[in-house]
TrEMBL record:
UniProt KW keywords: ATP-binding, Cell cycle, Cell division, Cell shape, Cell wall biogenesis/degradation, Ligase, Nucleotide-binding, Peptidoglycan synthesis
Name of protein: UDP-N-acetylmuramate:L-alanyl-gamma-D-glutamyl-meso-diaminopimelate ligase
Organism of derivation: Occallatibacter riparius
A UniProt-annotated Pfam family: Mur_ligase_C
Residue intervals of the Mur ligase N-terminal catalytic domain: 1-81
Domain of life: Bacteria
Domain Mur ligase C-terminal: 309-441
Name of the gene encoding the protein in the UniProt record: mpl
Lineage summary: Bacteria, Pseudomonadati, Acidobacteriota, Terriglobia, Terriglobales
Domain Mur ligase central per the UniProt entry, residue ranges: 96-287
Annotated GO biological process: cell division; cell wall organization; peptidoglycan biosynthetic process; regulation of cell shape
Length: 458
């Protein structure tokens, strides 16, 4: 929503917005853009009646501004539909979708095009991504060129449109990273998730291309009836795009990328983790299919920084490194902790988790969560965010996770709030420790409070 606000401002519109409690990095970005955010939601926020209200998918009937919009018949639209009508029509739409890796892969693909534009300005992309791409310092860009690169979210569109947002984006080229059960609040089961992705695949025209991860049966099922060319990427011997000789040297990841059985390029990148090599390979494959030169792809990946809140180093104080990661699913947590283990092999690794996403707040993936957290040396769990909104029989019980971790030999503790977490970990943190803070929200300011406590201790 913050990104679409920025894009609309670039078109000359006057933008205002509302939120219950905005938090960084998007609140910072909006402030820098001069877009006011009114807090909290209130009917009075619409006293100056806008020409159009864009309603995000977090809002439902009962929200005071939604009710006023309906009562007064103020024109309204969803973010996804507006994005299509204002920005995607008449352009080449490149969509990055999947349960994991969307934001990072979209940012990589956009940067590849940006680097290619140094030699050929026609490659300069417009893009819209669900995070701040550090190479751009923004989550969006608008150019008069043909290509629009967009993160395709499978979450629902709005209270009046319960289909996935990505069905509004009509891809000419598609990356499909993973398909797993997620968003337990709107999808009943894995089959429902797969149905959504199959519908997306069905929108790609015959002239288009799909780049799809090769080690997921769910992905294979979703692309099996595509009408366009499908190219697979991963580590398998028969992959169209195969990763070979992946290694981490002095914090830089190197690998060989083979295309159709022949070595295509030697690539390097300053991000750790097998998952990031896969993300980069997918971005390289789609870009190559669209005519981007190899040299631009190689240079862009070597220059690629990251996305805010993806393995982001927030502070290094008194020998303790604090990492921020936008964890939303057990698989994402596992890959984050594995990447940190590779980056800091001699360090004691702490995982501090706020179960905040609609999937993590439910117990449906509790066993997977325990296994993911076992990749850390020490684990601290906060209480479930707004647990009263989840039915008791569906809700994750963090005490069960903590018990299972302790029983498996991974020391774990449950703390009811951030102050209790700080009281638990600050006296125990040692020089050389790495603390991964895992949340897809503001986590009650822990990103600022932990460094402050460490400074006071030092």
């Amino acid at each position: 929503m913050a990104s679409i606000a920025g894009l609309l401002q670039l078109q000359g519109h006057r933008i205002t917005g509302s939120d219950n409690a905005a938090y960084p990095p998007m609140s910072d970005m909006l402030r820098e853009l001069g877009i006011p955010v009114l807090e909290p939601y209130s009917e009075s926020n619409l006293d100056q009646v806008p020409d159009l209200v864009v309603i995000g998918n977090a809002l439902s009937r009962g929200n005071p501004e939604v009710e006023r919009v309906l009562d007064q018949r103020i024109p309204f639209a969803s973010m996804a539909a507006l994005t299509h009508d204002e920005f995607l029509k008449g352009r080449e739409s490149l969509v990055v979708a999947g349960t994991h890796g969307k934001t990072t892969t979209t940012s990589m693909l956009a940067w590849i095009y940006q680097v290619a534009a140094r030699e050929n300005p026609a490659f300069e992309p417009s893009f819209l991504v669900g995070g701040v791409a550090e190479n751009f310092g923004s989550s969006f860009q608008l150019r008069p060129t043909r290509t629009f690169i967009i993160e395709g979210d499978e979450y629902d569109t709005a209270f009046f449109d319960k289909g996935p947002k990505f069905l509004h984006y009509f891809p000419d080229g598609l990356i499909l990273t993973h398909v797993e059960f997620d968003h337990a609040d709107i999808y009943a089961n894995l089959d429902a998730v797969k149905t959504a992705f199959k519908r997306l695949v069905n929108l790609v025209p015959r002239r288009g291309v799909i780049v799809a991860y090769d080690a997921s049966e769910n992905v294979t099922e979703c692309v099996s009836r595509a009408f366009c060319r499908v190219e697979r990427y991963g580590f398998k011997a028969d992959s169209d795009w195969r990763i070979e000789n992946l290694r981490l040297v002095s914090g830089v990841m190197h690998w060989e990328l083979w295309r159709a059985g022949a070595k295509w390029a030697d690539l390097e990148m300053r991000l750790a983790g097998e998952h990031n090599a896969l993300n980069a390979t997918a971005a390289a494959a789609l870009a190559a299919n669209q005519g981007v030169p190899i040299e631009a792809i190689r240079t862009a990946l070597a220059e690629f920084k990251s996305v805010k809140r993806r393995l982001e180093v927030r502070a290094e104080i008194d020998g303790v490194t604090i990492i921020d990661d936008f964890a939303h699913h057990p698989t994402a947590i596992r890959e984050t902790l594995r990447a940190l283990r590779a980056l800091y092999p001699q360090s004691r690794l702490w995982a501090v988790l706020e179960p905040r996403s609609n999937t993590l707040r439910r117990k449906v993936l509790e066993t997977d969560l325990v296994e993911s957290l076992r990749n850390a040396d020490r684990v601290v769990l906060a209480g479930v965010y707004q647990q009263q909104r989840i039915a008791e029989d569906e809700r994750l019980h963090p005490e069960d996770v903590v018990h299972a971790l302790n029983a498996a030999g991974t020391p774990a503790a449950l703390c009811p709030n951030v102050e209790a977490i700080l009281d638990e970990i600050v006296p125990k943190l040692l020089a050389g420790d790495v603390v991964a803070i895992l949340s897809n929200g503001g986590f009650d300011g822990i990103y600022e409070k932990l460094p402050a406590r460490l400074k006071a201790r030092a």
